[in-house]
Amino acid sequence: MLAPLWFFGFDSLMEFIAFAIASAVAYQALKGYRLSKERTLLYLNLSFVLIGAGLVIDGLANLIVLLARFHRAFLPLSAFGYTINFVAQLLAYGLLVFAYIHQTRNVGAQVAMAAAVPAFFFVHNPVTELILIFLLVYIATQTAINYSMNKSTGALLVFGTFASLAVAHLFFLLFTLAAVFFPLAHIAQLFGFLLLLAMLVRVNHPT
Amino acid sequence: MISTAQGQATKPTSKYRSQFRIYVDILHVIQRENNEAKPTRILYGANLSHDRLTKYLEELKSLGVIQENGFDDKTYSLTQKGIEFLNNFRKVEAFASAFGFKI
Question: pTM (2 decimals)?
Fold first, then answer.
């Protein structure tokens, strides 16, 4: 299934916005790590560096294809960008899952990481999207549990972020069936990052 | 930035607090006491033994985040650096907490 041509450009713009937000989250996590030396914050920093890198590479690749007016020679760039973005997200969400398991001191951490490794051999197909959804549902569940315990707006926004990203990847999966799901997936992804931005603003400017 | 003597905090568990966490607890107690806390208040507030309290207060003084006032009736207060550190810590704590991470 091909992405709708009219949407080219918008997807890059959305990914650049998401990249900026991911970079801000990575910076905040790095600041926290420098202050506290808490390792989970370093994992959070690395996760969002990876997410941001994947988004900006995919956005740039699609933008180049658009600027080259879909010249045949440039079309493989789009697949290259997607693949890099996919691998980056896989590593990032795998790292976040590891961080949650590390925090809860569950000995199954290595098992969860090992489960993600074979995905490198199955890029750009519904199976790999399913793996991302699986990782995101796990993270969304952890953040939902966190919200149920501390009831803070920040925790709700983070839960909303990962729930939106899980829905976005569900739409990316459904995109293999109908083109309309491609823009919907990007909108859900951007919405998730905007929730993250709202959390950052709240944390840095408490009322 | 406040770093531990080893340059890295030990992992906090339900049983042990990291050196970083003890620093923060001491600073919180001083701030809670209207920025003028007697050693006994800090001792009880931060749940420390006398020897450990003396050691940590000296370390915090050398880091420039607290200052000692008075001679016979000693009190401790936060410096501007200490106030800024606590403000930064609260932001980091809120950020980490939003993700469900404890520091």
Answer: 0.83
